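re: ur question from the group chat, yeah i did fold both. here u go
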Amino acid sequence: MSAGLPGLGLGGLFFVLSALVAPVVELRRTAQGRSSRAAWRQVGRQFALAVVMVAVVAPFVPWAPVGITTALLVAVLLAAKGAQLALRGARSVRAWRARTRESLCPDACTCCSEVAG
């Protein structure tokens, strides 16, 4: 059994992909006036590190394990985003029900508490 190469797991792949996309995100922030030189320095360092990692690893690593890890990373990110959206939806439904109940019934009304309780 092989332990694999450092940096090719989920965390390493997430870093590389995030660092490669970071200049695009920072360019958008710059256009919105929310960037700084320090932010660009950090993005540049991480981007350069990611490019070097890809360049060094690319000739030596078979692509099948990288593809499998990428698919797993996508599945994990989609599951996390799905859970976030589901929780946000449940919170908004509860808030909507509370607002509706408050707008339909005055404070002295007991009809909603009887139905809900």
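okk and heres the other one u asked abt
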Amino acid sequence: MKGRLGAGEVFRHIPFPLRDGRFADALAAVIQRTVSDGDEPARQVIHTADNSGMVGDGVSDPDIDGAAIVACIAHLAPAMADLATLPCGYIAVRDGP
């Protein structure tokens, strides 16, 4: 899936493992607005079996209309840079920031 976000293209899937073990600038993920806006820390990072990415706050309902956006996951790095090597089908969870 390709889409447009601002002036640049973002991509849902980039071959895994990622080059140099880092999130590509154009790699998109579904990200809860509470995380992207800085209201809550990222407490869940999901690398789905189909190689998609999701980032959640772990406390709010991500299924509420408008609760999530598609954005480049690299914008949340470097705080999450070590998760670029998280294997497909895994989830990383933490209790707080």
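fwiw on the second one: The two ends are 31 Å apart (CA to CA). Residues 1-6 have pLDDT under 50 and may be disordered. idk if thats what u expected
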